[in-house]
């Protein structure tokens, strides 16, 4: 029997797990019910379970029957998005403003299925660490688990993670060496001015005009400061200021994100944004504050682990359905923090339907056996 067949036979049970998680979504660092259910299942299957890692994270340890020193980490994210679900599914979210719109319910169920399979088939040499991570959507959970001693308490020689990808197409798997997902840094910029009457702008210092100039100038970060062959994007998503149409306000606030595909590009982009703000402030005799919030580095796959994923996926779906040259996405993922600490690879499992973060998104239960089988093939390869 092919390993995928084992998961296909039991897929209805795994779908029930997933749909229950979908109906009860929990936001970052609030995944109490999810973590309790995950831990209970893992304990029932005989794994050594540790809870409260990095807040609400769960780690389960499973040694193989054969002696071996290698340790592999498999990771899934558990949190939901703070958005309203607009599906009519029978298992739609019971919580207003919380929705598994990115498929983390499916990722969690997939890794649980892998843990069940390996607990019953422990003919491998070494140890598998199952890592159920909180708060991926806020880009904070991975760093929190690391700060709580994740890799010191549960050392890993390699680590692997997956994500559904509706752009890829059902039945396909994709991975690539190097950068797969972008670094992301949120920013808040406050342009200070001097408020005055809208009909007498000479009596003030208009932050609206300065902020408008700044939006355009920030676009030169990518077009003139980054190598044209290196991807990057600066997006201002919010501009706030003023309280009346005939009053020039004394401050404008801009918020947005900057995304880059390499560590050096990230450093350059953040530095140039600060310099542009400082220069424009000087030119307008005012003050501009530029602050960057918690972000994450690019998700960079190591060559060896990326090749391991490609070979494992080929055994599951066939080499013709594995894309090893997928175009990187400008989305971001805090699995990147784990990859900074431990070599590994992140891969996509294709499905159909709306893309992640769409209010009608739903993880496709039919792809769970594929993702789970790839994980198992990775373990067989690295701990075989």
TrEMBL record:
- Where does the Peptidase M20 dimerisation domain start and stop, copy by copy? 186-280
Q: What class of enzyme is it?
A: hydrolase
Top-level taxon of origin: Bacteria
The cofactors named for this UniProt entry are: Mn(2+)
The biological processes this protein is annotated with in GO are: diaminopimelate biosynthetic process
- Reported EC number(s) for this entry are 3.5.1.32
A Gene Ontology molecular function term of the record = metal ion binding
Identification of the protein by name:
Amidohydrolase
The record's section on InterPro entries has: Amidohydrolase (IPR017439), Bact_exopeptidase_dim_dom (IPR036264), Peptidase_M20 (IPR002933), Peptidase_M20_dimer (IPR011650)
- State whether keyword Metal-binding applies: yes
């Amino acid at each position: 029997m092919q390993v995928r067949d084992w998961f296909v036979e039991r897929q209805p049970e795994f779908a029930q797990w997933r749909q229950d998680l979908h109906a009860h979504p929990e936001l970052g660092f609030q995944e109490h019910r999810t973590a309790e259910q995950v831990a209970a299942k893992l304990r029932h299957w005989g794994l050594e379970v540790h809870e409260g890692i990095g807040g609400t994270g769960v780690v389960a340890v499973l040694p193989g029957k054969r002696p071996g020193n290698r340790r592999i980490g498999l990771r899934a994210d558990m949190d939901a998005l703070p958005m309203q679900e607009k599906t009519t599914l029978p298992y739609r979210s019971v919580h207003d403003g919380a929705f598994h719109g990115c498929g983390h319910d499916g990722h969690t169920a997939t890794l649980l299925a892998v843990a069940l399979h390996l607990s019953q088939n422990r003919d491998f040499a070494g140890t598998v660490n199952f890592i159920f991570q909180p708060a991926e959507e806020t880009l904070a959970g991975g760093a929190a688990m690391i700060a709580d001693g994740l890799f010191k308490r549960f050392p890993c020689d390699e680590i692997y993670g997956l994500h559904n990808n509706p752009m890829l197409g059902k039945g396909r798997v994709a991975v690539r060496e190097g950068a797969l997902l972008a670094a992301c840094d949120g920013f808040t910029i406050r342009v200070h001015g001097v408020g005055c009457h809208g009909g007498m702008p000479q009596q003030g210092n208009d932050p609206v005009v300065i902020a408008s100039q700044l939006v355009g100038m920030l676009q030169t970060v990518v077009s003139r400061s980054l190598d044209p062959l290196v991807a990057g994007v600066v997006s201002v998503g919010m501009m706030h200021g003023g309280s009346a149409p005939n009053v020039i306000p004394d401050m404008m606030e801009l918020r947005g994100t900057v995304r880059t595909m390499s560590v050096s590009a990230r450093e350059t982009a953040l530095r140039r944004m600060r310099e542009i703000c400082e220069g424009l402030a000087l030119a307008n005799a005012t003050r501009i504050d530029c602050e960057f919030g918690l972000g994450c580095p690019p998700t960079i796959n190591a060559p060896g682990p990326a090749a391991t994923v490609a070979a494992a996926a080929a055994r599951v779906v066939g080499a013709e359905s594995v894309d090893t040259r997928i175009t990187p996405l400008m989305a971001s993922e805090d699995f990147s923090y784990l990859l900074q600490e431990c070599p590994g690879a992140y891969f996509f499992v294709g499905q159909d339907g709306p893309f992640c973060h769409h209010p009608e998104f739903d993880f496709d239960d039919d792809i769970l056996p594929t993702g789970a089988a790839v994980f198992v093939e990775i373990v067989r390869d690295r701990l075989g």
